[in-house]
Structure formats: C-alpha cells, structure tokens
Amino acid sequence: MLTIGLTGGIGSGKSTVAKMLAALGAVVWDADVIGHSVYEPGMPAREELIAAFGPAIVGADDRIDRKALGRIVFADPDALKRLNAIVHPRIFERMAAMVREARAQGERRPIVIEAAILIEAGWQKLFDEIWLVTASREHVIERVERNRKLARDQIEARIRAQLPESERRKWAKVVIENDGTFDALEKTTAAAFSQALSRSGEAKP
After folding, report:
1. What are the contacts of 76-80 at 24+ separation with CB within 8 A?
2. pLDDT in tens, 117-136
3. Residue 178 class from Cβ within 10 Å (0-12 exposed, 13-18 middle, 19+ buried)?
4. DSSP β-bridge partners for residue 132
5. Cα first-last separation, the chain
6. Sign of dihedral through CA atoms 28, 33, 39, 42?
C-alpha cells in the first residue's frame, strides 16, 4: 500500500499533478489543509501557539487568526522558526495518524499527500516514495504571474526563499518535469503512477 509525498516549488504545477493522481485513482490530501486543522480549538498546537505568540493571535471566533500570526512570524525569522518547531511535528503526527486510520479502515489505494515544505519540515520518513514536480525558472515565473498576479520581483524573492531544487532532488524517487503542455504532463504523470504501482506490486486502482 503505497504512500507518496508530492512536493515542488512555487509554480511548479504540483497541485495540477495532485489532481491528475486523484483522477487516476489515488487518495489525495493537502498538507496545508491538514496543517490548518492542527491548531483548531481543542487541538494541542492551538494552546502552544498562544503560549508562544500571545492571545492577540486569537480571533473573535476563538480560532487562530492566521493573518495576525503571519504578521508576527514573517517579520521575524526567529519567530518563524518557533512557529515551525511547534506546527511541523504536529502536522506530521496528524498525517501519520490519518494514513494509519485509512489503512486500518481498509483503504488500499495509494495515498498521496501534497506538501510544498515536505523536505524542509523533515517529513520524509512518512512516505514510501517522494515525488518532485519541477519546472524551469521562466515557466515558473510565467505561471505565477498569470495565476497569482504577483510582480516578477515578488516571485523571484519567493523562489530565492525556497529550498534549492538540488536539495529536493536528492530525496526524490520520481521527478516530473513540467515544462511542456498539459497533455504532456498528464501522460508523464500517468506513466509515473503506473510505474510506481508496479514497483510496489499493486494493481491499478
């Protein structure tokens, strides 16, 4: 029963690949969505965050105000490190529990978790394989300009802030190059998925 970690930088197309894998029969989860759940009311990370950053990060609805928290941590590298030290292990625990629960309930399809910060957060041991979606710098800038309406200098700053592509490649079992057409990406993804199922001895979902 295969568990795949899907990662890639901004504008690489990993979310598109995630949708393609879902269409091919995989169970696909988003680590960002899981991450938001770990500091909901009643969850341990919520109290840890309040202790670290103060009650001002709690909104009127009694939930963590992500914008207020963001203003603190993105202005202070040490604060961002404190945030990550609290949240990343909790997200890992939640993802691992979700995989265990799904398997215990009889889920046999491949599980794919899309996670931009998979390598940075040290989540590698959760996965049987890590897949990297990558694209040239110019394609990334073009996509992000079109889809997110960011200025080129903003995009380049985000690229510089990411983990270098060479470091991601060290961990990747599969690298999907996304510099062509949508159809080409679809064919590459389908072939990679079929090969992964063969490696793991699993039938196509």
Report:
1. 79/53
2. 999 999 999 999 999 999 99
3. buried
4. 7, 175
5. 11
6. negative
One DSSP character per residue, the chain reads --EEEEEE-TTS-HHHHHHHHHHTT-EEEEHHHHHHHTTSTTSHHHHHHHHHH-GGGB-TTSSB-HHHHHHHHTT-HHHHHHHHHHHHHHHHHHHHHHHHHHHHTT--S-EEEE-TTHHHHT-GGG-SEEEEEE--HHHHHHHHHHHH---HHHHHHHHHHSPPHHHHHHH-SEEEE--S-HHHHHHHHHHHHHHHHHHHT----
| Model confidence band, residue 150 (pLDDT cutoffs 50, 70, 90) | confident
pTM of the complete model: 0.89
Q: With beta carbons less than 8 A apart as the criterion, state whether 72 and 79 touch.
A: yes
Rounded Cα distance, 6 and 20, in Å: 12
d(CA 97, CA 7): 20
20 vs 25: CA distance, rounded Å:
9
Long-range contacts of 186-193 (CB under 8 A, 24+ apart): 186/20, 189/17, 189/20, 189/21, 189/24, 190/20, 190/24, 192/131, 193/21, 193/24, 193/26, 193/110
pLDDT digits (tens, 9 = 90+) for 137-147: 889 888 888 87
Structural contact between residues 114 and 6, judged by C-beta atoms closer than 8 angstroms: yes
